[in-house]
Specification:
nucleus, 4 helices, 3 strands, alpha/beta, Rossmann fold
Length: 131
């Protein structure tokens, strides 16, 4: 399901499926995009940040058009203990690889991969980013 911001409308709560992963998309060319994500973060339960949230930054192939500092986005990921994925959706290969990566993250967060939990996967992602 896709939402442009949080909180989600409450009138559909009983029909809404379980939420296993939240992907916050940030367009590097839009400060409004980052502000919308920052405002939406207040509506996410703190326990969700333990492996079930990630930030997907799009438009990174056009560095000359950036309106947002990469460092600011990285600090956001650190502050919420959540991985940050950078991609360029204009390139089909990168778009496909990103979709596969998000799908694998979703499978882990939903408990469909034996031996992995959302928390252990999140820690693994953070350690690989530190290297």
């Amino acid at each position: 399901h896709i939402a442009t911001s949080l909180p989600l409308p409450s009138e559909r709560d009983r029909l809404r499926p379980r939420i296993d992963l939240i992907v916050f998309m940030i367009d590097i060319k839009s400060k409004c995009s980052l502000k919308n994500v920052e405002a939406s973060l207040a509506y996410v339960d703190g326990s969700f940040f333990l492996g079930k949230v990630c930030f997907l930054v799009t438009g990174v192939g056009r560095v000359n058009c950036c309106s947002i500092e990469i460092n600011a986005i990285s600090k956001l990921g650190e502050a919420y203990c959540s991985p940050v994925l950078f991609c360029e959706l204009e390139l089909e290969g990168v778009r496909l690889a990103t979709a596969q990566r998000l799908l694998r993250m979703l499978q882990i967060c939903a408990g469909l991969v034996p031996g992995f939990s959302a928390l252990s996967f999140s820690l693994l992602m953070r350690h690989s980013a530190d290297d």
